Task: inverse folding
């Protein structure tokens, strides 16, 4: 009758701060939610390769390509007096037809530009323009602006080559494209009066992913440590926390789509293109959020394996002798599982050296804890034939 007393004392001692543990879990989940967005912004806005790849996907979208074609056609006809150029080309007696011909070309130009944008040459020009603009942007954000020409402190996306390509496809490249002014087809990305704020934001965004991720992991770890004998339940809560953070990120992305579309779409005709741009531009956010959800599910699975359910106990009893008597084989299997996870890469961290090291450490720690648990639960379990 004396044994229940000490057991209750230990349980009370380990679970004497449930509110603190719960507070740590909630705070860590909020920080994990913020970390997801900081990782997305950092990878999307400050990584040139990701920027260029995303821009390539934008061009491949039919709605976006149609809107870009309209812009290129408008730039061509806004910067060149097409009617006057045609009057110089036509014989005197056909000069009165220059006006109607110019109008017909203007109507035809968007269709021609759209076909031009579908070619590999146009895609290469588009990618080069985006790469040049982003590299310039990064140099300015890194305070290296003196090394590049920024056009009065402005970073621009130069689409003049695409405007010329569209003019060439109209069959009047020599007469129209050569008349384009230097600033035709330039889209401003960053203005000079926004430079200081952009540099400060860039410096913050570069640090946030690491700081927030490490802080979230620290708080989760502290919550598990303070949970005492209820650490398995705390681990399960951590898994739910990652799932919640990922799901909330996806929900906020969906909610934000409407606000962004309303703000940027000047007309109903432009809405499909803006919606497509939002979906493509936030695809990396989906990747990071899904990684958080997947990681949470893995933690939930680990907590279930260590749990009190009959199936989990039967599984632990079955593998207990292998974990106890054959540690080398155990870790070889764990290594094989880790290799499969690397190839599958269900979590973004598998693409990063630091993430690989951290996940490997967690897997080894979890395996060792499972070995000790099964050894204590089933010390006499033997191999079954």
Result:
């Amino acid at each position: 009758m004396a044994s229940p007393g000490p057991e209750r004392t230990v349980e009370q001692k380990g679970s004497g701060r449930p509110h603190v543990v719960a507070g740590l879990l909630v705070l860590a989940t909020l920080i994990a939610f913020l970390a997801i967005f900081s990782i997305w912004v950092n990878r999307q806005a400050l990584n040139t390769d990701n920027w260029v790849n995303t821009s390539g996907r934008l061009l491949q979208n039919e709605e976006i390509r149609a809107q870009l074609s309209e812009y290129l056609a408008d730039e061509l006809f806004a910067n060149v007096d097409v009617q006057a150029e045609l009057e110089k080309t036509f014989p005197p007696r056909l000069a009165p037809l220059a006006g109607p011909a110019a109008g017909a070309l203007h109507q035809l130009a968007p269709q021609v530009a759209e076909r031009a944008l579908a070619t590999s040459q146009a895609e290469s020009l588009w990618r080069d323009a985006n790469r040049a603009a982003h590299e310039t942007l990064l140099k300015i954000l890194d305070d290296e602006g003196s090394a590049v020409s920024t056009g009065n402190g402005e970073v621009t996306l130069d689409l003049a080559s695409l405007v010329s390509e569209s003019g060439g496809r109209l069959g009047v490249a020599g007469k129209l494209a050569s008349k384009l002014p230097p600033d035709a087809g330039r889209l401003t990305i960053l203005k000079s009066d926004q430079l200081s704020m952009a540099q400060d934001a860039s410096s913050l965004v570069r640090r946030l992913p690491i700081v927030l991720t490490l802080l979230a992991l620290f708080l989760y770890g502290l919550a598990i440590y303070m949970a005492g004998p209820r650490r398995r339940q705390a681990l399960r809560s951590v898994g739910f926390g990652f799932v919640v953070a990922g799901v909330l990120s996806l929900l906020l992305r969906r909610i934000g789509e409407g606000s962004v579309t309303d703000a940027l779409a000047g007309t109903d005709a432009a809405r499909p293109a803006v919606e497509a741009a939002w979906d493509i531009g936030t695809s990396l956010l989906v990747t990071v959020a899904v990684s958080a959800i997947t990681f949470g599910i893995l933690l939930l699975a680990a907590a279930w394996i260590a749990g009190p359910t009959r199936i989990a106990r039967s599984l632990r009893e079955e593998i207990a002798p292998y974990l106890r008597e054959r540690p080398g084989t155990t870790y070889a299997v764990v290594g094989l599982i880790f290799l499969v996870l690397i190839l599958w890469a269900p979590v973004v961290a598998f693409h990063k050296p630091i993430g690989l090291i951290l996940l490997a450490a967690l897997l080894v720690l979890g395996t060792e804890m499972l070995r000790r648990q099964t050894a204590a639960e089933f010390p006499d379990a033997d191999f079954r034939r």
In short: The first strand starts at residue 155 and ends at 158.
